[in-house]
Amino acid sequence: MLPGTFIALLAMLMNKGLLSPSRYVSAKEKLATFLYVVGHAASSRQAQERFQRSGWTVTQSMNEVLSAMVRLYPTVMRPPGSSIPWEIHSNPKMFPFFKGCVGALDGTHVPAIPPPSGAKPFRNRKGYMSQNILAACTFDLKFTYVLAGWEGSASDGRVLEDALLNKGFVIPPGKMYLGDAGYGLRLNLLTPYRGVRYHLREWSLGNQKPQSPKELYNLRHAQQRNCIERIFGVLKKRFRILVTAPEYPFPSQSINLGLKAKTLPKQG
């Protein structure tokens, strides 16, 4: 994180009364400890060595900043607007065909260490323990919604259904998100044709051009939906804890993984 971004984030947390210094630890050090752990997937022992603090102090700093980030969520998270996104309106390949789309959504798996008593559902189809995290973003790479905590074995469609029915995910009336074929077709979700070439890497082979209207639609859909894959890549590169199973209690893992997408990337 750039120094200016760090200072701006610290000022925001302190000005809103979400984070404050304690007798022996400044608010700056608490935030630095948190970012060190999530940015480098550092263990508590590594953080203790880096900041020359006890395990208890590191844990307290992590918990305080985590709580502050969660409470910051309503400030930094914004639903998409009702106007046509610039990325659509300014591109003749996309407008007017995708004028009702406000962003893209997808699921991503991140390693998890669930409680032993309920670990089995977290084993995904690739064989490792994970959470299936749903996220939606605008075409300029700003997250509009994140839902963490679902087991790795849960389908993307099931997670989306829970988000829409129970977890406050609202799609503006008359608007749509772009999603992959795994979600199935619904009124507020635009998906590609099944059985037709889709992924951008498929189009890069042989430099081929679309041979039918369905192939052209799938190509444009994939090009525009690529924003969600890009932001997942940025997020996992910036916060290494998202690619390494964290050693912290599972409830903290769920909150922690979700708030990275909700807050930190938007701060630069």
From TrEMBL:
Belongs to the HARBI1 family. The keyword Transmembrane does not apply. The lineage of its organism: Eukaryota, Sar, Stramenopiles, Oomycota, Saprolegniomycetes. GO terms for molecular function: hydrolase activity; metal ion binding; nuclease activity. Its cofactor is a divalent metal cation. The keyword Cell membrane does not apply. Keywords: Hydrolase, Metal-binding, Nuclease, Nucleus, Signal. This is Uncharacterized protein. Residues 1-70 form the DUF8040 domain. Residues 105-242 form the DDE Tnp4 domain. It is found in: Nucleus. Residues 1-27 form the signal peptide. It holds the Pfam family DUF8040. Its main location: nucleus. GO terms for cellular component: nucleus.
